[in-house]
């Protein structure tokens, strides 16, 4: 350890000691600590203990809690610009910090959409001025998210957009999407696409099947997702562009992703924490907070998604954070808006899978940290000397009950309302600075 010997507030080392180190690559519970200096990890391991630290170091005893990289969420709606009544960058990043999320990839389907460099610049400045965690803009693939005219991907990338998506919209025109992929390939840009055949999903409001019939609701077939995803993968093979499926929710989609990866195509995919931990039966008596897009699927599909995540076929977990206000959720199920908040509960919900023996803690953390960092080309998401000190401390066994009134998001449409959870985040650091600390 090489630590400046002269005490300085500006360069005071911070040490997290007496913890269990977990990441998605190297550490799976080793006892030790992390030493931080000037916003980066200076050293880590079992030798990071109070007896080995200089007197001027600030020391936090983690009491056996987990020390892990901060989570990276690749799908979240942050409200600004144009939907500040649903969420703002300030409230979204406060929720993220409380949930252990240190980097957010913001969706581009705002008002106006993120289809001009000026909007990218606005988001970066607002995040700098009001955000508690890192916020990275994703920009639109097409102007106005209309799926017709390709956006200026090169200029948007220069302005600071790290990925490109039309948010919750699918580009139905195959010719346009081929051109999008070809254009993105020339800039080595990541294309994130929400795969759904809108003609096939039509007026559906939940997963098609027996349960939808019993509730008297129109269904969305699994094929609506699979048909569009299969088309996308064929166009990726044609163009060679980097492609990320925003959300996969069915075994049909898993088969398509498996074939694409076996063929060596540059394809990755995500699953939302909701589809991993909930199923269509949880909708119960028309619970609109569980009306999502894509819809919650059958329990067999949920289990298949968990297995695919455990095997590495599914790359990452996202919150799919989508705040909706009371006026759009307190409606008959068919009329309510899609979406649920998730930044603050993503980790705790994921720990349900760990506690059930369906997933290892290391794999869960890797799917929320290292793998999204690799896909986005970020230096965060790992416990490694020289990496940014975006870190979290949490107790995976501490129980609590989700109280919407205590959540930091502006809207309270959580699918885990009054649910019993385990896994309380106690400390969130961004570049070594405290973004959240539990009281």
UniProtKB/TrEMBL annotation:
<dbReference type="InterPro" id="IPR011059">
    <property type="entry name" value="Metal-dep_hydrolase_composite"/>
</dbReference>
<dbReference type="GO" id="GO:0005737">
    <property type="term" value="C:cytoplasm"/>
</dbReference>
<dbReference type="GO" id="GO:0006145">
    <property type="term" value="P:purine nucleobase catabolic process"/>
</dbReference>
<dbReference type="InterPro" id="IPR024403">
    <property type="entry name" value="DHOase_cat"/>
</dbReference>
<feature type="domain" description="Dihydroorotase catalytic">
    <location>
        <begin position="64"/>
        <end position="250"/>
    </location>
</feature>
<dbReference type="Pfam" id="PF07969">
    <property type="entry name" value="Amidohydro_3"/>
</dbReference>
<dbReference type="GO" id="GO:0004038">
    <property type="term" value="F:allantoinase activity"/>
</dbReference>
<dbReference type="GO" id="GO:0004151">
    <property type="term" value="F:dihydroorotase activity"/>
</dbReference>
<keyword id="KW-0665">Pyrimidine biosynthesis</keyword>
<feature type="domain" description="Amidohydrolase 3">
    <location>
        <begin position="357"/>
        <end position="434"/>
    </location>
</feature>
<dbReference type="InterPro" id="IPR032466">
    <property type="entry name" value="Metal_Hydrolase"/>
</dbReference>
<dbReference type="InterPro" id="IPR004722">
    <property type="entry name" value="DHOase"/>
</dbReference>
<dbReference type="InterPro" id="IPR050138">
    <property type="entry name" value="DHOase/Allantoinase_Hydrolase"/>
</dbReference>
<keyword id="KW-0378">Hydrolase</keyword>
<dbReference type="Pfam" id="PF12890">
    <property type="entry name" value="DHOase"/>
</dbReference>
<dbReference type="GO" id="GO:0006221">
    <property type="term" value="P:pyrimidine nucleotide biosynthetic process"/>
</dbReference>
<keyword id="KW-0862">Zinc</keyword>
<protein>
    <submittedName>
        <fullName>Dihydroorotase, multifunctional complex type</fullName>
        <ecNumber>3.5.2.3</ecNumber>
    </submittedName>
</protein>
<dbReference type="InterPro" id="IPR013108">
    <property type="entry name" value="Amidohydro_3"/>
</dbReference>
<dbReference type="GO" id="GO:0046872">
    <property type="term" value="F:metal ion binding"/>
</dbReference>
């Amino acid at each position: 350890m090489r630590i400046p010997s002269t005490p300085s507030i500006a360069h005071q080392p911070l040490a997290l000691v007496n913890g269990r180190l977990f990441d998605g690559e190297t550490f799976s519970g080793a006892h030790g600590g992390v030493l931080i200096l000037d916003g980066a990890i200076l050293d880590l391991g079992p030798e990071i203990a109070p007896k080995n630290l200089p007197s001027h170091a600030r020391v936090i005893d983690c009491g056996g809690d987990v020390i892990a990289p901060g989570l990276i969420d690749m799908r979240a709606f942050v409200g600004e610009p144009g939907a500040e009544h649903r969420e703002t960058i300030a409230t979204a990043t406060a929720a993220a910090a409380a949930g252990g999320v240190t980097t957010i990839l913001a969706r581009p389907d705002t008002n106006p959409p993120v289809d001009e460099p000026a909007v990218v610049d606005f988001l970066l400045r607002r995040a700098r001025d009001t955000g508690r965690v890192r916020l990275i803009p994703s920009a639109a693939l097409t102007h106005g998210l209309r799926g017709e005219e390709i956006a200026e991907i090169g200029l948007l990338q220069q302005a600071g957009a790290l990925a490109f998506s039309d948010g919750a919209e699918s580009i139905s025109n195959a010719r346009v999407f081929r051109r999008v992929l070809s254009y993105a390939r020339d800039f080595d840009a990541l294309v994130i696409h929400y795969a759904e055949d809108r003609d096939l999903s039509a007026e559906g409001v939940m997963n098609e099947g027996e349960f939808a019939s019993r509730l008297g609701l129109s269904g969305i077939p699994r094929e609506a997702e699979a048909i569009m995803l299969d088309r996308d993968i064929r166009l990726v093979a044609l163009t060679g562009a980097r492609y990320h499926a925003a959300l996969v929710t069915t075994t049909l989609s898993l088969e398509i992703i498996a074939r694409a990866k076996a063929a060596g195509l540059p394809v990755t995919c995500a699953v939302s924490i909701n589809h991993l931990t909930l199923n269509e039966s949880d909708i119960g008596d028309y619970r609109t907070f569980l009306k999502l897009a894509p819809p919650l699927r059958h329990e067999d599909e949920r289990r298949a998604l968990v297995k695919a995540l455990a095997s590495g076929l599914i790359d990452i977990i996202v919150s799919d954070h989508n705040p909706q206000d009371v006026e759009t959720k307190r409606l008959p199920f068919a009329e309510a808006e899609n979406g649920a908040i998730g930044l603050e509960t993503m980790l705790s919900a994921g720990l349900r899978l760990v506690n059930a023996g369906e997933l290892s803690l290391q794999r869960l953390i890797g799917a929320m940290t290292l793998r999204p960092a690799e896909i986005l080309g970020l230096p965060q998401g790992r416990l490694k000397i020289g990496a940014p000190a975006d870190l979290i401390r949490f107790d995976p066994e501490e129980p609590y009950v989700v109280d919407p009134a205590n959540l930091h998001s502006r809207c309270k449409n959580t699918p885990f309302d009054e649910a019993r959870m385990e896994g309380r985040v106690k400390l969130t650091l961004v570049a070594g600075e405290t973004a959240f600390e539990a009281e």
